[in-house]
Amino acid sequence: MAAHRPPPRGTAPESASETPDCQTRVNSLKYILSKKQKTPLSARGHWSTWPAFGCGQTILGNHKPCCAPEERESSNKQALLTIPKPQYLEELESYLKKELQSLDLTEKNAQELKLQAYREIFEFFIDSFKTYKPLLSAIKNEYEVTLAHQKKTIRSLEPLKAMVTTVSEECTQRILALQEKQKDEIYLLKQEKQQLLKIIDNMKEEKSSLQTQVEYLQASVAEEYTRYLNQHDAHKLLLAKLNEMHHERLDMTRRQAQDVKGEDGVKLTLALKVARQDLTKAQVKLNKMLADYGDVVPRRDFESLEKKYSDLLQEMNILRKDFDRLHEEYETLLEIHRETEQERDNFCAELQRVQQNCTPRPNWEKCSDVIPGGAERWDNLAVGKTSEQLVDVLLEEIGTAALKEINVFPGWGKNDNVPVYLRHEGEVKNKKLTKKDVVNILKDIWKEKIALEQQTGKRSSLPKFFLSYLQKKFGDTAAMEWSYTLYENMRLCPSNHVLSSFYNILTGKVSEEQYHSQNELISSLQKELAACDGLNSGSLTSEEFSTALGETFPLKRKESIQELVDASRCKLDSTEDTINYISLFEEDEEGNTTPFVAKLRSQYIREKQEYLRQLKNKLGGLTEVNADDLKAAFCSIDPDIDDQMLETYLGLALQARGEGAVAVETALKRLLAGDVRRVGPAAREGSTASSEGE
């Protein structure tokens, strides 16, 4: 930016042309003041320090060594009242008051006119006091440069304001168009629903008419059957009468024959007896036949009625199936309608929220012009990240760039509340390390600490080990310089897992067990993938890779397994369905991992949060919990948890069982900072509730 030159004395930078009368008055006042500056006091270079000068004389005249500060203050106030203002100050104040009264404050540039009046007064100060003129001119110039810069910034932001208004109007129009489109779709769905309801009513009426026909046919069959029985009985009676008449006619014929021939009466008696016996046998046989086959229907009628019945039954079954199918379709349509209505309500709520919080999406491509490395490095940093994550990346780049400009850090002191690795008084030199150097040092610290713990069999504190490592490697003098430099780099880089995890554990936000637990999960997955790779080719098919994930993480849902498979596809070796699982665990020189490992760690945090959410829901409305409450809740949501793991979780929540009862939020916060995860599959009721909640 070119150096801003101050405006000439006696003229305003921007509003001089608008206020000629004001300029004339300023010039006349400068002429008057220039005459008054030639007084003997001004010529000697004395500057009246009213009221401090008079106050000082009063204090020296009335000084009491043992008087209280309140008495001194009252004496100072009395002295101030006795010292008059300098005449030059009164003239300047009078001139400023007149100028302000003569201005029209209703104009747009009223503030500029007021500033011009104060600027003229300040120039009179600069011209009057030659000794302080360079310093006062420098102050005035800096203010003028700052005002010009602010005006330029405001002018550059005006197009952005117009663009924001235009984008807001476009979003509003799009939202209204979506609402109109949804209204048409909902109207069509309602019409289709009414048509389906009419079809269902017609089917119900048709079913009722068919049922009436079936009942009528059944009554007709019953009447025909009754009529047939009556005819059958009448037929049997008629046969009996015919037989009786036939026998009577035979008897008459025999009598006539006996009378004619004159046969022997004994022989006729025997014949009659035998005939009667035959008649008795025939009658018995006839009664038996009537008893056995009296209710039998003729085969022709039976087959006809059976065929008619089967046709009606088949037709009724078809109608019943059609009715059931239509009923299912109706229920499906009702369910779809309810889902559509709920989805519409959700969209309306989201629309209202978007309308309230609608802001234009920033153009992140502009960041490539200011980020070191240009567009290529920005593209690598921004790939797959949300706007919130991009803000973190941008802040990290700005912070690391600003950190390199700092030469020394102020010490935090040696109080007990200061961490042991930052206890230092005075300034500390900045080592100006790169992110690669910081990552290598932190990895070496983890390596040394794990080796020491395996050797001693006891877990050590990371802050103390961090300081001892730096003292051992760089000496006691330079240890604080390295400690402050590493601490600031870790604090400014939350997107880097190596730096952020070390910083969270170092500051006590997260327990060290969580870091080791995540590394164990990754290590066990690597071993399982290597075991599935029988050819040691370093690659697996998607099916084999998914199977290995399911065996390593049996408690993960299918959706989580699919997320990991999708995250691994960015490392496909070729167009074939093979995954190079070795490359999924590689890191670059700055400690950045692949999307697969990042997804694995994010799922670990998400599953822990879901586990603790179920625990909170199980505790219900309790505000404080004790060991028994937590034990019952853990056993309810995780039935397979063992006693050792349960005691570990209770120790985390209750600080090693030292507290009888703690607040629910405090216990959940402690559990969230530690290594807490599900041991076995969730209970059936809990899993159902969880799936419904999702």
Q: How would you explain this protein's 3D organization?
A:
The chain is mainly α. Helices cover 72% and strands 3% of the residues. It folds into 4 domains: 127 residues, no CATH class; 174 residues; 104 residues, no CATH class; 179 residues, no CATH class. The chain has 22 helices and 6 strands. The strands form 3 sheets. Strands 1-2 form a two-stranded antiparallel ribbon. A two-stranded antiparallel ribbon has the order 3-4. A two-stranded antiparallel sheet has the order 5-6. The relative contact order is 0.03.
Radius of gyration: 53 Å
Calculate the terminal CA-CA distance, rounded to whole Å: 57 Å
Strand order within the widest sheet? Answer: 1-2
The SS-based structural class is mainly alpha
Mean pLDDT: 79
Oligomer: single chain
Low-confidence sequence ranges: 1-50, 52-72, 685-694
**Overall structural domain count:** 4
Largest sheet, in brief, is: 2 strands, antiparallel
Percent helix: over 70%
Q: What global shape is seen?
A: elongated
Residue share in β-strands: under 5%
Order of helices and strands: HHHHHHHHHHHEEHHHHEHHEHEHHEHH
The count of helical stretches stands at 22
Q: What is the total tally of β strands?
A: 6
Q: Could you name the key traits of this structure?
A:
elongated, mainly alpha, disordered C terminus, two-stranded antiparallel sheet, 4 domains, 694 residues
